[in-house]
Write a structure and sequence with these properties.
Layout (H helix, E strand, L loop, with lengths): L2 H7 L40 H5 L4 H5 L3 H31 L6 E5 L7 E6 L6 E6 L5 E5 L10 E3 L4 E4 L4 E4 L5 E3 L8 E7 L2 E8 L4
This protein binds FE2/S2 (inorganic) cluster.
């Protein structure tokens, strides 16, 4: 290896911008000058383009984290965390101020035979739901949109389940909970109130478990 090659690998005290003759910053702990390569133009690191300083090829410099960089990282992660918390708080506020769900008459209780079901839309005309009267006479209502990919579920009263034919998803008829197949959550439950012969939907119980 020639003298020129050795000279080209020699550490430049100004390579990290100190220019004071001492190795500082990322080069402070370097014992072997062959660990550090020089830029093709031979200029000190401080004079190199930003991309070359941001993506160093030498291990010691790549591993080095300056105090300022570490502080920047802490500030950014703390800021992201605070922004996330603020977003959640804002969502809670918006949700709490939402108008209460409407009260909607969905059926006549007497007209709904045991072991049968009817469809209705609630709380908007775009939300299909099922009102079910079990064989025991209990009234139950759920959103008809499967919690997997929103296919319409179909009641199978004799089996005690709601079936989604798209991907063979199953929900328990009595609770609406997902019991088999890909659906990740229970069906939203529609809260009912019976007044005389009238069955009213009065709210939606969104559930995650
Ligand atoms: S949409 Fe119901 S299981 Fe996939």
């Amino acid at each position: 290896m020639g003298q020129d090659d050795k000279a080209s690998r020699r550490l430049d005290p100004a390579v990290d911008g100190s220019g004071a003759g001492a190795l500082v910053g990322p080069l402070r702990d370097v014992r072997d000058e062959t660990e550090i390569s020089q830029a093709p133009d031979g200029a000190p690191r401080a004079q190199q383009p930003e991309w070359r300083r941001d993506f160093p090829i030498d291990w010691p410099i790549d591993q080095y984290v300056a105090r300022r960089d570490f502080a920047k990282f802490l500030v950014l992660t703390s800021g992201a965390f605070a922004a996330g918390q603020a977003w959640i708080a804002a969502q809670d506020l918006v949700r709490s101020r939402r108008t209460p769900p409407p009260r909607l008459r969905v059926a006549s209780a007497a007209a709904l035979a045991r072991g049968s079901a009817v469809t209705f839309q609630y709380p908007t005309p775009h939300d299909p739901c099922l009102l079910i009267r079990t064989r025991e006479g209990e009234l139950l209502a759920y959103s008809q949109a499967c919690t997997h990919l929103s296919c319409a579920v179909v009641p199978r009263l004799e089996e005690g389940v709601l079936h989604c034919p798209c991907h063979e998803g199953f929900f328990d008829l009595k609770t609406g909970r997902n019991i088999a197949g890909p659906p990740p959550r229970p069906l939203p439950k529609i809260n009912l109130v019976v007044e005389g012969d009238d069955v009213f939907a009065v709210g939606v119980d969104e559930r995650t478990v």
